Amino acid sequence: MYKDVIAMIASGQLDVKSIITKKIALDNIIEDGFQALTTDKSQAKILVSPEM
To answer: Are the C-beta atoms of 36 and 22 separated by less than 8 Å?
Structure first.
C-alpha cells in the first residue's frame, strides 16, 4: 500500500503540497515545529528539512 502511494506522489498523480502547512529547518524543530503544532490548530503537517 505504501509503495503505491509513494509511486503516485512521485508521478504527480497525488498532489500533497496542500497538506504541508509549514516548512522549517531541522535546527528550528523545537521552536517552529513542536510549539506550532501544540499552539496553532491550523497546523496539520510541518515539513522538516535538514537543508534549509
So the answer is: yes
For 25-39, the pLDDT digits (tens) are 999 999 889 888 889
C-alpha cell recorded at residue 47: 515539513
40-42-46-51 Cα dihedral, nearest 10 degrees: -80
Tell whether 5 is covered by a domain.
Answer: no
The whole-angstrom separation of Cα 44 and Cα 33 is 11
Residue at 30 is within a domain: yes
Is 23 within the bounds of a domain? yes
